[in-house]
Q: What sequence folds into this?
């Protein structure tokens, strides 16, 4: 597990969405999504409920 993936997870939780987290991390949304999906694959669980309004735990 990459510790920086956990940083991305924390930012998504705090921001309430992948796009807003990307802004705070100075990266693009696709990068955040890729890192979260990799973390979900590694853990074998979905970490968020995704909707048009954002994400929730």
A:
């Amino acid at each position: 597990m990459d510790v920086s993936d956990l940083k991305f997870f924390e930012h998504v939780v705090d921001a309430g969405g992948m796009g807003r987290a990307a802004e705070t991390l100075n990266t693009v949304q696709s990068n955040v999504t890729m890192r979260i999906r990799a973390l979900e694959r590694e853990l074998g669980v979905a970490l968020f409920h995704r909707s048009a309004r954002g994400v929730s735990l």
User: Anything to note?
Assistant: The CA atoms of residues 40 and 52 lie 20 Å apart. The longest helix spans residues 29-43.
